[in-house]
Amino acid sequence: MQEPHVTAAEPTEPKGLSWGLESRLQFIDFRLRWEQRINRMDLTEHFGISVPQASLDIAKYTELAPGNLVYDRSSRTYTAAPGFQPLYQRSSAQRYLAELLATKMGVVESAASYIGSAPETDWAPSPWRTINEQTVEAVVRAIRQREAIRVSYQSMTSLDESTRLLSPHALGNDGFRWHVRAFCHKRQRFSDFVLARILHIDGFELCEVDFGLDVHWHTLLTLVLAPHPDLPAAKKRVLELDYGMEDGQVKLPCRQAFLYYTLRRLGLHTKEAPDPLAQQITLKNRDEIQPYIDALTAKS
Description:
Blueprint: H1 19-35, E1 37-38, H2 40-47, H3 51-64, E2 69-72, E3 77-80, H4 93-105, H5 133-145, E4 147-153, E5 162-173, E6 178-184, E7 189-194, E8 198-206, H6 215-218, E9 220-227, H7 233-242, E10 250-255, H8 259-266, E11 281-283, H9 286-299
Antiparallel strand pairs: 1-3, 2-3, 4-5, 4-8, 5-6, 6-7, 9-10, 9-11
Helix pairs in contact: 1-3, 2-3
C-alpha cells in the first residue's frame, strides 16, 4: 500500500507589521521550531534591543500564535509547544538547511544567522570559481542601469583574450559557475558569459537592446523526470522519495537558456538510453524537449 503524501500547511504570515518587528518575530518563530526554545537574551544579543522591547516582541508573537509556545518558569525560557506550527516561511526546512550550508561555507556570518546552535554540518566540496569583486559590481550596475559594457573576455576557443561589447540583462548560476546573460554585439546574439572569464571592464556605453528578444531566456520549459523503467519497484520508490515525485514523476521548471546545464547535472544531456545502474532517472518527455536542446546546440 502506498504511503500517504503529507504536505505541511503553508504558514499564514502576519501582515502590516514594521520590518524590524517582523524580523524579530521571524527570529522567534525560527528558534522555536529549530531549537525548541527562545528567551529575551536571544533577542537582545542578536538584534541589539532592550530587554523590555524583547518582552514586547515575545508578547506579540504569543498574541499571533498562542499555541506555539509555553513558558518554563524554572529556566525562564519559552519552549515550543507540542503542537507548534511555524508562523513564517522563513522557518521552513529548506531555509534552515540553506542557512546551515551558507554558514558552514562562510557565505553568511554566524552572527547574521538565525541559527544559534548548529548541528555538525559539511558538504561535498568542489573547486571555488574565482570572481572579481569589481567585475560583479560593474555587471550588476550595467543590468540595473541598462548599460552596455566593453570587456576583455577569455573564451574556450582561443588563448588570446578578446574584446566584446556586452549588453547584460540577467545573472544565472548553472550549479557550479555564475554567468551573465547578455547580448553579444560581436556575434549579434544572446549568450551566457562566465563571470570568472571576464578579465577586466574597459568601459560603459549606451544600451539600446530589446531584452524581450532573448527567446531562450524567456522560454520556460517543464522537464518531467521519472525513475528508469527498468529499475526494481523498491529502487523506484526510493527515487520517488528522493526527488519528491508524485505518481511516479516530478515536474521541474527550467528556462531554455539553462536547459543543457540542468540536463548535464542530471546526467540526461545525451539522447542515448541511460543504463539504469548508472543513471537511475530518465527525462520522460524527451521527445517534447529535444527540439529545444537542438536549438541551443545549433547556436553554440
